[in-house]
Amino acid sequence: MENKTPVNNAAAAEVASPAEHDAAHQGCCASRRAVLGGAVMGAAALGLAACGPSGPAEIPEATGKPEAVMKVSDLAVGSQASAAAGQTKLVLFRPSEKEVLAFSAVCTHAGCEVTPGSENRFHCPCHESWFKAEDGTVISGPANAPLPRFACEIKGEDILVYI
Questions:
Q1: 75 pLDDT more than 60
Q2: pTM for this structure?
Q3: Which of 11, 66, 142, 154 has the least CB density, counted as fewest CB within 10 Å?
Q4: How much is the mean pLDDT over the chain?
Q5: Full 3-state SS string of the chain
Q6: Using CA atoms, how far apart are residues 123 and 29, in angstroms rounded to an integer?
Q7: 99-122 tens-digit pLDDT
């Protein structure tokens, strides 16, 4: 005599063979795997983007008290120099007759002091990071963020930096 008792699908799934179970659930699990895989890949991409070099520091507005850090005649066009505005250590670059750029001389990797280098590059001797003098971005090394930039101008015979 046949048993006509209704079968609970959940109970039936529990007694199904592994092959039958996999076949019955392949659609749901594949999409879950796709969602999880996409989430993992997205998180990895964000993580890698955070570790990569970022763009140049924003050009700051000239606010605050300007401080004379050097005479214009002491920084030839195309050259670099170290300077200080109070307790803030700086590296300067003069790309043209009428412009001077000022950046923090604190390396964004481990806080060592960045110095003027060669070929329009600033150098951190602690771990060999190099930064573009034109915009403070990382050229090479373990540093992965640009040097912070300060507003700077030539006024009369002085180079003024706004800290």
A1: yes
A2: 0.66
A3: 11
A4: 78
A5: CCCCCCCCHHHHHHHCCHHHHHHHHHHHHHHHHHHHHHHHHHHHHHHHHHHCCCCCCCCCCCCCCEEEEEEHHHCCCCCEEEEEECCEEEEEEEEECCEEEEEECECCCCCCECEECCCCEEEECCCCEEEECCCCCEEECCCCCCCCEEEEEEECCEEEEEC
A6: 52
A7: 999 999 999 999 999 999 999 999
CB 71 within 8 A of CB 124: no
Q: How far is CA 146 from CA 15, 28, 111, 114, in A?
A: 61, 46, 13, 12
Residue 52 CA, chain-centre distance (Å), reads 6
Residues 6+ apart with CB under 8 A from 99: 154
Cα–Cα distance between 108 and 105 in angstroms, integer? 9
Give which of 133, 40, 29, 127 is closest to 80, Cα–Cα: 133
Q: How far apart are CA 75 and CA 5, in angstroms?
A: 95
Q: How far apart are CA 57 and CA 51, in angstroms?
A: 16
Contact 120, 134 (CB under 8 A): yes
Question: Distance between CA 163 and CA 147 in Å, rounded?
Answer: 15
Long-range (24+ apart) CB contacts under 8 A made by 8-13 are none
